[in-house]
DNA sequence: GTACCTCCATACGCCAGCGTATGGAAACCA
DNA sequence: TGGTTTCCATACGCTGGCGTATGGAGGTAC
C-alpha cells in the first residue's frame, strides 16, 4: 500500500483526507496519528477544510478503514489468480507476501489499534477473507475440509508472525541469502502430507 | 502476566507505578495509556506522588519495560526446563503458549508500540532470547544449525501470528474442540524431517 | 518531644488537539 | 456580471495531559 505524501492541492476531496489518514497510520503513529490538525498541516490546509468534508474525527477513521478494506486484500488475491496450479500459487503467495520490501506498516498499525471498534470490524473482514482464501487453496490441494482449515490458519498465523517480526525486530529475520531456503521450508512444512 | 488492579495503598513505590504502567499498556491503551494523571487516579494518588518517584513520563516507561523484560520471558522458559525430552518440551511449550486463557495483551501492545525506541530495544532483547531458545531446542532434536534456526523462526512466527490473531480476531481461531488437533498439526509440521 | 526526612496533595502554567462559528474566496450558473 | 453554491481560513473556547512549585502530613531518630 503505497500512499503518497500529499503536498499541496488547491481543493481537497474527502478521499484525499482518507488517504492522508491511512498514510499517517502507516507512518508509525498508529490510529492516534489520525489527528485533524496535524493532518491538515500535512495537506497544506486547515481544519476548516476537514470539518466541511467530515463531521468529526470518527467519520474520517470510518472512511479511511473502508478504503483500506476494499483495496488492500483483494488486489493481492486477484494477482494470484493468474496461476492455475494451487501449489505454485501458495508458493508464489508466500514469496510475494514475505518479500522484505513488502513491509506494510499500515496493516501492523491497524492490528495494533484493534481496541477501536471500527478497526476491529475492518480487521475481521479482511482476516476472514484471507484465511478463507488460504483454506480454499488447501482444499484444492486435496486436503479434507478440517485439515485445510488447520493449514489455512497455520499459514496465516505464520504470515502474521513473520510480518510482525519484520516490523518489530527486523534483525531477527533471515538474511537475503537465507531467505529462499526459509520460505521454502515454510511452504514445505505447510504442504507436507501425513 | 497478571498485573492486579491496584486499588489503594497509603504509600506507593516506584515499582507500584511501573506495574500500573504495564497494566495500563496491557489494558488496551498501548503505550499512550502510560499517562501520569490517569495512572495516578487509578492508583488513588496524584501526580505529586509520581513526580517524586520519577523524573518524567519517559523514566516510567523505561522502568516498566525493564520490569517486563526480566520477568516475562524467563519464567516461561524456566518452567519448561523440568521436562528433559526436547520434543515433549516443544509440545508443552506450544500447548502452554497458545492456551486461549494465556492472552497477553501487554505483549501485543508493546509490539504495537515498537515505534518507541525504548520499546524497540526491549522487544529485541526478548525476541532474540526466545528465538534463541527455540533454535536451541531444534538443535537438541538433531537438526543442523541452519535448519534449527529456520525452524526456530518458523515456530516463533507461528506463535506471534497466533497470539496476534487471538487478540485481533478471536473468532478466527479454532474452537476448543478443534484446538488439540490444531496444536498437534503445528508441532507436527515443525518436527517433520525431510 | 522536637527536628528531620520521606512521601504526597494542591494549585498553577503550558501546550496540543477537538469541535464550532463566521466570513470570505473561488468556481459555477445564468 | 451578479448571484449562488462550494469549499476553506481564521479565530475562539474547551478538555486533558505534562511538568513545576510549594506546603504539609506522617514516620524516624535521639
What structural keywords apply?
elongated; 70% helix; 0% strand; homodimer; DNA-binding; mainly alpha; 194 residues
Descriptive notes:
The structure is a homodimer of 194-residue chains. Chain A has 194 residues and is mainly α. Chain A has a domain at 62-191. Chain A is built from nine helices and no strands. Chain A has helices spanning 14-29, 36-42, 47-53, 57-80, 86-98, 105-112, 117-140, 145-168, 179-191. The first copy, chain A, is elongated, with a radius of gyration of 19 Å. The interface between A and B is large, with 50 and 50 residues.
Helix content of chain A: over 70%
Number of strands of chain A: 0
Strand content of chain A: under 5%
Oligomeric assembly: homodimer
Structural classification of chain A: mainly alpha
Mean pLDDT of chain A: 91
Secondary-structure element string of chain A: HHHHHHHHH
Distance N to C terminus of chain A? 38 Å
Shape summary of chain A: elongated
Low-confidence stretches of chain A are: 1-7
Overall radius of gyration of chain A = 19 Å
Query: What count of helical segments of chain A does DSSP give?
Result: 9
Amino acid at each position: 500500500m503505497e500512499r503518497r505524501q500529499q503536498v499541496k492541492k488547491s481543493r481537497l476531496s474527502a478521499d484525499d483526507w482518507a488517504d492522508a489518514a491511512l498514510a499517517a497510520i502507516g507512518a508509525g503513529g498508529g490510529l492516534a496519528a489520525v489527528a485533524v490538525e496535524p493532518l491538515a498541516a500535512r495537506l497544506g490546509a486547515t481544519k476548516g477544510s476537514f470539518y466541511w468534508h467530515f463531521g468529526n474525527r470518527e467519520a474520517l477513521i470510518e472512511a479511511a478503514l473502508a478504503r483500506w478494506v476494499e483495496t488492500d486484500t483483494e488486489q493481492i488475491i486477484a494477482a494470484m489468480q493468474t496461476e492455475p496450479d494451487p501449489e505454485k500459487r501458495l508458493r508464489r503467495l508466500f514469496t510475494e507476501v514475505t518479500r522484505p520490501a513488502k513491509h506494510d506498516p499500515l496493516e501492523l498499525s491497524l492490528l495494533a489499534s484493534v481496541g477501536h471498534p471500527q478497526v476491529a470490524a475492518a480487521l475481521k473482514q479482511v482476516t476472514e477473507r484471507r484465511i478463507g482464501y488460504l483454506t480454499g487453496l488447501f482444499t484444492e490441494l486435496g486436503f479434507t475440509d478440517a485439515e485445510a482449515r488447520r493449514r489455512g490458519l497455520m499459514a496465516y498465523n505464520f504470515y502474521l508472525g513473520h510480518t510482525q517480526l519484520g516490523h518489530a525486530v527486523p534483525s531477527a529475520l533471515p538474511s537475503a541469502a537465507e531467505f529462499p531456503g526459509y520460505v521454502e521450508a515454510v511452504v514445505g512444512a505447510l504442504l507436507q502430507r501425513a
